[in-house]
Amino acid sequence: MEYRKFDGTYVLRLDPDEEICGQLLALAEKEGIALAQISGLGAVKAFTVGVFDTKTKEYHANAFEGPYEIVSLTGTLTTQDGKPYLHAHFAAGDEKGHVVGGHLNQAVVSATAEIILNRISGTMERKFSEEIGLNLFDFQ
């Protein structure tokens, strides 16, 4: 991954075989980013996305392999227990134009990924909600 910082905005390029979530978390750790919004596009060769079942409070993961174009990558970087926490959603289309997506667990770049990370001044910690079953923004 290569990146350049412009004030509070980071412009990133990920290269083949780099994993998107891991690279974003590594950048947050390296740069001390506690709160940010991310968006991106590119091409991947493998990814796993999930859908949260509100009744069972479990994620159901779906893995995909092959040539896919990232249609949408959007999310937030916050912290949980003082460590970087990524919450991202992801949609990708195949060569026939079929799009799949969900909560991003992992994605491996095939050609490139271009990601914009907008740092927000301040911090936002997450806390697990027993009622909902998710790590939510903690405004306490």
UniProtKB/TrEMBL annotation:
InterPro entries: DNA_bp_PD1, PPC_dom. Residues 4-140 form the PPC domain. CDD domains: DUF296 (cd11378). It comes from the Bacteria. Keywords: DNA-binding. It holds the Pfam family PCC. GO terms for molecular function: DNA binding. The keyword DNA-binding applies. This is DNA-binding protein. It comes from Candidatus Eisenbergiella stercorigallinarum.
